[in-house]
Amino acid sequence: MPLRHATLCSALALAGVSAAVAAPPVVREEVGNRVSENIPAIPPALVEQLNRYQNTRGATFAGWTEGDCMLISTRFAETAQAHRVCQPMGMREQLTFYPEPLAAIEAPPVESKLDGFVFGKDVGGNEFWQLHWFDMKSRGTTLLTDGKARNQSPLFSHDGKRFAWSSTARNGKDTDIWMMDFADKKPRTLVTEGGQWTAMDFSPDGERMLVMKYVSAAESYPGSVDVATGKLEMFPIDGGKASFNGFRFAPDGQSVYFISDEPIDGKAQEFHTLRYHNPATGKFEVLTASTPWDVEDLDIADDGKHLAYTTNEDGIYQLHVLSLPSHKPVKLPALPVGLVVNIGFSPDGKRLAVTMNSATSPSDIYVIDLGSAKLTRWTQSEVGGLDPSKFVAPTLVHYPTFDQVDGDGTGKSRRMIPAFYYRPANVPTGKKLPVVINIHGGPEGQSLPTFNPTAQFLANELGVAMLVPNVRGSSGYGKTYLGLDNADKREDSVKDIGALLDWVGRQPELDAHRVGVYGGSYGGYMVLASLMHYSNRIKAGVDIVGISHFGTFLKNTEVYRQDLRRAEYGDERVPEMAQVFDAISPLNHADRIRSRLFVAQGKNDPRVPYTEAEQIVKAVRGNGQPVWYLLYNDEGHGFRKKSNVDYFSAATMLFWQQNLLGDSR
């Protein structure tokens, strides 16, 4: 039975408020791993109304296996697990049955004759993933890692004899590259230079490995390591600093294909382009020079005859395939408009599996026959019995913000911010729609027009519009845009939300008096900061695992993340930066948050510690403001277990009903 009790809370207000303000009573409920405060009982009618939206699910491609089968990740019960599918629209055979969701799933090359796959799994969302081998014949598992460290990015050599991954096992702080001969499964360190390293690709003969050191979204360093000796050779970077993504050996084992924004002929580049380089001959080629958008991903067929890559064109992903070594485009079938992710060639190189997702359809897997350009659907995921034809597709809008940029020779013009706009259908003439602004995390993330059950429920059931902006600092719009919110420019991205509020006020179909904000992680900070600056214009906000003070966040985040986050946010140990954090952090200005607030958090969050949530809840309540608070003891950075997600979603919809959908002021 739930335990409910009421306690009176009071706290000294922060940021210059001289005396504590009596806060309303706090009603606390503990049910299993869930702790909730001030959250009313969820009406059964709302639970029933949400049920079908909460039972939508998708399928993601994870690799090809023997017998022309594929591994996929999907959820049939509480969490996403590994399944096998052996023909188009065939039965999904569930292989793993853990209460925790699987992370990485990596299949060995089919030619290796290794019948199984590697998967990662943590406990309670703590992100200290352990890698395991799943044997397909015995259905048994073998632990490959130490059981304690954070292990990720599994990678097999092309013959399957060697296996590499990234791990913090050496000292808990640095992410080294480890390797084992898969036959004896004896791990050894390969790269221990300090920082965060990832194995990118083995050479075809398995003797060398391409590696990458990641510093920030704008800075990474590629190199090559001799697998036998551990000798590391870093590659020179034009301009000294650049960002790199994919890095793969060409079929000849000497040349490389890679994705980078490295300067070309001394000229700075805004976007990540696909490039080819042969160090022996000096030949260099930019394969996407005419595409003014980022290249996101690449894969090379095992037979060495084709290369596939995707481009991110204003939030829409386009798939491309090139013949090798000619680099001539291959004709492809028409694909649904949306996202193309998790691409992978079949073992014989004649087909390409892709995961497709759109705003009106959850993720599913399709296979392209490269010879005939035929598209075959392999999975069809459920949409909870809903009518997909009634799903709302967003439109892409651009709104002006506060600063100016150089135009096309005609002078300066207002900077434009992109946003996806989900508008309910069949709105009666003259009716003004409430609005939820959904802000992504990262901060280098990018909101994309993916399938979003929440947006569909808001539009179709509650008649609420959703705006999903990509404020400055978002990826996908060039290097300059990515860096516009760094360090002491952090609040410029908050001003972009203020500009969006201005835009809402100019739209005749939107109700500027009924606006809510919603976001997770860095997006949670943006929610709190928006409420701090615009409480008079925002009725309510939902903060999920958000940062409330950058100084305490950087001090308390897991040690392996501290330097990575300092590269983006600034170093709290520097007095000048500490002053900036004090000035911009919502915790220090909790007295200015006068809108209704709902804070949700995972107790095991290694990225944004739960103390960030606890301190902002206490501070806002200390100013007499009621706050809904939800804490899961078995979750981390966000919620991944279906029952937890379902309750949070229902509580969020109740929060909007009570605090956003009332009459206009």
Automatic annotation (TrEMBL):
Keywords: Aminopeptidase, Hydrolase, Protease, Serine protease, Signal. GO terms for molecular function: aminopeptidase activity. Residues 450-660 form the Peptidase S9 prolyl oligopeptidase catalytic domain. This is Dipeptidyl aminopeptidase/acylaminoacyl peptidase. InterPro entries: 6-blade_b-propeller_TolB-like, AB_hydrolase_fold, Peptidase_S9_cat, WD40. SUPFAM superfamilies: alpha/beta-Hydrolases (SSF53474), DPP6 N-terminal domain-like (SSF82171). Coiled coil: none annotated. It comes from the Bacteria. Residues 1-22 form the signal peptide.
